[in-house]
Amino acid sequence: MKSSCILFFFLSLLIVPLNGQTAQVSGSWIESGIKWTKPPAELQLKERSAEAGLLYFGPNNQFAFVYGTVIQGAKWETLSHGDGRVVYLGTWKLDGSTLRVEFRLVSRTVSKENETLPGPIEKRTIQLNGGVLLFESMRFRLDHRLDDQLLAVFEGESARLRDGGQH
What we know:
Blueprint: H1 2-25, E1 27-31, E2 47-57, E3 62-73, E4 77-79, E5 86-95, E6 98-108, E7 122-129, E8 132-135, E9 138-142, H2 147-162
Antiparallel strand pairs: 1-2, 1-9, 2-3, 3-4, 3-5, 5-6, 6-7, 7-8, 8-9
C-alpha cells in the first residue's frame, strides 16, 4: 500500500506540469509584428485590420493554421469572412516545450493552378519559448478572442472534407 502511494505521488508530479503546459498552449495564437491598417477616417470606424497567420490548438489535439484577415475593435476581434484565406488542418502533440504538428492544406480562397486539395501531409515543430510560439520563422502570441471562430473554421472545413468537399 505504501509503495503504491509513493508511486502515485511521483507520477502526479510528472503529470501536473504537462497538463499545465497543455493549458498554456490551448486556444488561438496570432502572429506578432503584423502590419495593422485603419479604414479611411471618413468611415468613422474604430477598428483596424491586418493579414495574419493564426494557429489554433483545440480539444482532442485539433490543429489549424489559418492565414487570413483579422479585424480588431477596441474590445473585440474577428476573422474576416469577406477576405481570402488559406486553411491547413491537422493534429498537435506536446513534447516538453516542443509542439509536433502534422497538417495539410485543405482550402484556399483563390485556387492555384495544378494544386490538388487536400494537399500532402506536412510535419513541423513549434517551439514554446516563454509564452511565445516560434513557427516557420514567425512568432505567435496567445489571443483567446479568436478561439470560437478558429474552432468553427476547423469544424467547418473538417465537415466539408468528410462530405467530399461539397460545401
